[in-house]
Amino acid sequence: MAWYPGAIHWPLNAETSDRSHxxxxxxxxxxxxxxxxxxxxxxxxxxxxxxxxNGVGEVYQYASTSQATRASGAGNFGDISVxxxxxxxxxxxxxxxxxxxxxxxxWIWDTHPSVPRRIAxxxxxxxxxxxxxxxxxxxxxxDPTDRKTxxxxxxxxxxxxxxxxxxxxxxxxxxxxxxxxAALGDSRDDQEPIKPPLGEEMIIVWRVGDNVAYLVTGCSxxxxxxxxxQAIKIANPDIPEHSAYPETVQTxxxxxxxxxxxxxxxxxxxxxxx
Length: 274
Known about the structure:
CATH architecture of the largest domain: 3-Layer(aba) Sandwich
Strand order of the largest sheet: 1-4-3-5-2-6
Order of helices and strands: EEEEEHEHHHEEEHEH
CATH superfamily of the largest domain: Peptidoglycan recognition protein-like
Structural class: alpha/beta
Distance between the termini: 59 Å
Shape: elongated
Number of domains: 2
Number of helices: 6
């Protein structure tokens, strides 16, 4: 049983069957509520989340993170769901909420190594995710650099049966980088460097801030389009994906170039004509 020490523990005792799971993501929701505590009484029947973060940043926990709750439809198993206060209107997270969500995400990373330290992408929903990734609707023309346009059409996930569910609102989706940064700590230097692949290995790196994707091999690193990304994922569904700040991306690019130069120098030393 995993209970966040920074939360007010409010077990709902909502389940009578075993819902043990291995979490792979923390999913952000908006509660459409001005409540201090979203679920006041248990046992509770119906949709419910693992956590709720109210407007002043207080965190309520309703179930162990080792148990699948019921806020993300077909994505419940593998999901740690976090509802957030919005005063029953469409608005951004308060600064206190961002801080609390960052601290919660950092604890989840430490407690559940199965949740990677990254922001979810259409081809890999692990890490820090948001409800709309599994919702169907018209969220504008798809733009691979704009997370607000990402939805079921790209991910194939079914996290809601409602069409056009606008959860967790555009303003909160725009704050995902802030949550991620808060979870890493006060300095971006806290982010571990990404090592260049070796041999035939490949990885995909998404740059935090503008969501530009790069295909990285041991000797090359190049920006790829959404169409290229889809083709790569079809051919290599298990290719590792990472989220990285621009500074980390630049460091990786320099390391890849250095590795490529070293390989060329070795080949020339062996007499190869390059």
